[in-house]
Amino acid sequence: MHRFLILNGPNLNLLGTRQPEVYGSVTLDDIEALCQAHGTRIGAQVSFQQSNHEGVLIDAIHAARTDFDGIILNAGAYTHTSVALMDAIASIDRPVIELHLSNVHAREPFRHVSYISKVAQGVICGFGAKGYVLAMDALAGILDG
Ligand code: DQA
Questions:
Q1: Entry pTM
Q2: Across residues 17-21, what is the average pLDDT?
Q3: Which are the catalytic amino acids?
Q4: What does pLDDT average to over the chain?
Q5: Which of the listed residues 102, 124, 132 should we mutate to test ligand 1's pocket, taking the one with most ligand atoms within 8 A of CB?
Q6: Position 106 confidence tier, pLDDT thresholds 50, 70, 90
């Protein structure tokens, strides 16, 4: 059974009330339920985590060296700023899928830059909560070879 870390960054705990015109009304708990149900379907064990703190996200990525087979990462705004998260991903031998609920390329220019993309296997964005399910299938595909 594959072990997935689904890691969510800053402000994603506020989904449901945060800018619903951009992110919709789905909450992070709803998304976790979606991911757990899909994990059961495809035979993946899911650890779903969120932190507003860059260092905590880095520690979680390091923990994947021993605890997880791959990572789905919605790094939130740290996507566009964090060399430290990029370095953490580059330092571990685990596939990472970059994920965004919104289509970051259709938004402000600063969101078109991603440090995560430089070290991720692939990127899924613009599909809302469904993107998490798509990312899980993509990660399973990578791990199954
Ligand atoms: C986001 C996109 C980021 O630009 C933004 O800072 C977020 C959420 C998304 O899921 O669409 O916090 O990662």
A1: 0.97
A2: 92
A3: 23, 100
A4: 97
A5: 102
A6: very high
Pocket test for ligand 1, best of 12, 31, 104 (most atoms within 8 A of CB): 104
Q: Ligand 1: which residue has its CA nearest to atom 13?
A: 76
Per-residue pLDDT band for 122 (boundaries 50, 70, 90) equals very high
Report domain extents, the chain: 2-144
Answer yes or no: is the C-beta of 100 below 6 A from any ligand 1 atom: yes
Q: Does domain 2-144 have CATH number 3.40.190.10?
A: no
Determine contact, residues 75/113, Cβ cutoff 8 Å.
no
Atom of ligand 1 nearest to the CA of 77: 6
Task: Dump pLDDT digits (tens) for 31-85.
Answer: 999 999 999 999 999 999 999 999 999 999 999 999 999 999 999 999 999 999 9
